[in-house]
Structures are given as structure tokens and as C-alpha cells.
Amino acid sequence: MPPKLPHGRPYETEREINVALCDTLIDAAQQFLQILPSSESPLWMQMIKMIQSARRAAKVPLKDVELQRVLSDMAIGGMSG
Questions:
Q1: Could you tell me the CA-to-CA distances from 30 to 15, 17, 33, 39, 61 in Å, in that order?
Q2: Which one-letter DSSP state was computed for residue 76?
Q3: Are 44 and 33 a contacting pair, CB within 8 Å?
Q4: How far apart are CA 73 and CA 79, in angstroms?
Q5: pLDDT digits over 65-76, tens only?
């Protein structure tokens, strides 16, 4: 007998797990930011924004143009908004 396939959308659970992991990382990073010296805050804020971008991509898959924009924002000097 072939193995039973999961019911529903097979990638939905994986997506939910990825979003939850990103949420946990964002929460931890924001808590860590509060104890960092202010001189290191800008760099850490960039990392938080990168994790937030990853969360958005995990929640709703990006189209080619959106992915290109997100990746260019992650370049050094990017992450303007």
C-alpha cells in the first residue's frame, strides 16, 4: 500500500511553522535590542527588518518582482523602509 498523503494543503503546515519561527525570532531580536548599546542598534534593526521580510515571504510567497525588491533591500546600505 502506498503511504497516506496528508489531508489539506501539504505546504500549509510548513508555512505556518515558518511564520511562527519568524515571529519567535522577531520577538527575541526585539528583546535583545533593548539591552544592546545604542551604537549597535542600527545594525540590529537591519537584522530585525530582514527577519520581518522573511516572515512576509513565508506568509505569502513573493512574485519575481517582489523577491527582487526584497533582496535588493537586503543589500548593504539597503533596508531603507
A1: 22, 20, 5, 15, 25
A2: T
A3: yes
A4: 5
A5: 777 776 777 665
Please, what is the angle between helix 41-59 and helix 64-73, to 10°? Answer: 170
d(CA 52, CA 24): 11
Nearest to 52 by CA among 74, 36, 76: 74
Residue 49 region, left (φ>0) first, then alpha (ψ -120 to 50), else beta?
Answer: alpha
Q: Which residue has the higher pLDDT, 57 or 6?
A: 57
Q: Which helix (DSSP H) or strand (DSSP E) does residue 32 occupy? A: helix 10-33
- Please report, to the nearest 10 degrees, the dihedral formed by the alpha carbons of residues 26, 54, 73, 29 taken in order: 10
